[in-house]
């Protein structure tokens, strides 16, 4: 009888405990429910990553009930439209993509919303978002402002965007050409520069390394691609120009040699032209943005399907692959900020980052680069993940004066690349101009 009573009491206790648990169970709410029926207007560039995103966005509406209208524009048109929209009291855009150096314009003007309040809101922030999985170099380069030098992380830095359509620099090469002539994949700049002029001798009519070469931004980008790994910077930590030092001259001479031995017409190439020279089989090597990887095996765009190998950006004084591309942020004058954050968070989540990568987009997360499904479809992702360990968030200064100097650097240096002056003469002119630009902007105000 005692045993029976004991079992009865235990059973009653368990039932009571279960009832107590059931009475205090919190039923998960749908975080999207308050925003169902909302229409978000977003601004994206015409870019391979965002073409992949467009295939995935309808899924967001299916899952959340939040509608999305995309204004997808060519990059320069997008930048012009944003400049107008961001100055309105109430903007038309709820979420926008911005190219990395735009943060130097938008953040000081108070035109991008800080993201901390959203990530601190338990009704909005997904506890499984895993921000540590976002690629560190991309976050530092694209998302953060206000820290070291004003544009890098540090105790005073804050988050204004999430990398989305971000890129680093990698080395692509024609496996068939390298095997045919028993060439070694270059691991250093010395080896790379030895190969760029050897290829045209071995394969008449084929350039060595394709490169940007058009005057202005394109030459500036191409120069900076080599400056960082060769040990250079545009400014020192006190904003004194050092672009014309030994490392700068070496980077300029390297670019000049690359263009001289590259595909015909290289000094007029922007990114599209230099990329297409590789895709059409007119160059044996490629060193620039990872965005090309989504096209090399597309028979509609490429004549070199199945013939490309990938390797790390060659090492100079140090490894220093680029970081850049696009991020997404919420305009300060947006009319649906909370719903826009939910879309931003959804697009950059682990699950959706993988979905976009499988459509040919650029992953923003380490886990996506390591994912077995992604690697089965795009084996180059593991190489890209290795390159990202050396991604340099400081390869160019993302400061409000950069637009002016960027154009000056690319315009003046192009004169050296076409033989009108020496590389040293061109960079001396750039350094002098850089000093004047910084002085006018107040960068030397606090110097003793």
Descriptive report:
Strand 1, helix 2 (48-64) and strand 2 form a beta-alpha-beta unit. This protein is an alpha/beta fold and 448 residues long. Helix 2 crosses helix 14 (350-358). Strands 1, 2, 3, 6, 7, 8, 9 and 10 form an eight-stranded mixed beta sheet that branches. It has a two-stranded antiparallel ribbon with strand order 4-5. The protein has helices at residues 2-24, 48-64, 75-85, 103-106, 116-119, 136-143, 175-180, 189-196, 198-202, 217-227, 246-260, 271-279, 337-347, 350-358, 366-370, 372-377, 381-388, 402-417, 423-441, and strands at residues 39-45, 67-73, 95-99, 144-145, 158-159, 162-174, 207-210, 283-289, 308-311, 323-329.
Cα gyration radius (Å): 26 Å
The mean pLDDT is 92
Shape: globular
Structural class by helix and strand composition: alpha/beta
User: Level of helix content?
Assistant: 40-55%
Number of helices: 19
Largest sheet: 8 strands, mixed
Model regions low in confidence, pLDDT < 50 over at least 5 residues? 1-24
Terminal Cα span: 93 Å
Strand runs, count: 10
* SSE order, one letter for each helix or strand: HEHEHEHHHEEEHHHEHHHEEEHHHHHHH
In what range is the share of β-strand residues?
A: 5-15%
